[in-house]
Amino acid sequence: MTSIMFLAIIAAYLIGSVPSGYVVVKLLTGRELTQIGSGRTGGTNAMRAGGLIAGLLTGALDILKGTCAIWLTRWLLTGQVVTVSPLPWVEAMAGVAVVIGHNWSIFLNFRGGAGTGPNVGAAIAFLPYSGLLLPPFVVLILILTGYASIASLCAAALVPIVFAFAARYIGLPWAFVGYGLATFAIITFALRPNIARLLNGTERRVRFEWWTRHHPFAD
Q1: With 80 as the cut, is the pLDDT of residue 214 above it?
Q2: What's the confidence (pLDDT) of residue 87?
Q3: In whole angstroms, how far apart are CA 10 and each of 69, 145, 204?
Q4: What is the pLDDT of residue 218?
Q5: Of 15, 48, 51, 115, whose CB neighbour count within 10 A is largest?
Q6: 166 vs 78, 111, 130, 154, 172, CA distance in Å?
């Protein structure tokens, strides 16, 4: 069983490492996403490089990475995809691994995104109802503030809060609260440059004239 647990965590990291945004932008535009804007591979930079469709497709695939990593972990541990966690702490570690893989991809010399997409995807696998809250919450914060980094940080902070409430009142495993705290720390660490720019007033704002396709983000 120990070897299967280890395999599940490694597999989650590799799933997270798949650079969805890089592939999407390369296929749609031929451009090198890591050489554009922030150099990150998440939905925000994919939108900068390839427009609205590229950004939305990247975001959806990144969320799917997180969900699939947890489903695969459950299948490896039980021989079938189940909705009740057989070993919550292993699933929590797999969730952390998929976020780490996304942020520090083995396929991109340990570069990647900030972790928001796979974090949301794993959260949905742990607590399906969170799928009704987290994606709209990210979009709302993005629209209200104009900063993708703030939206990412707020979503990362919301996950352990929602999970703690669910653990207290509906029996969600507390291991998933630990997952939320760990990924909040990981995402905050990844966004250190953005936080510094927010503090000194130089962080880029998201502009919503995406339909123009060219220069969709402010300098």
Answers
A1: no
A2: 85
A3: 10, 36, 35
A4: 35
A5: 115
A6: 24, 33, 10, 18, 5
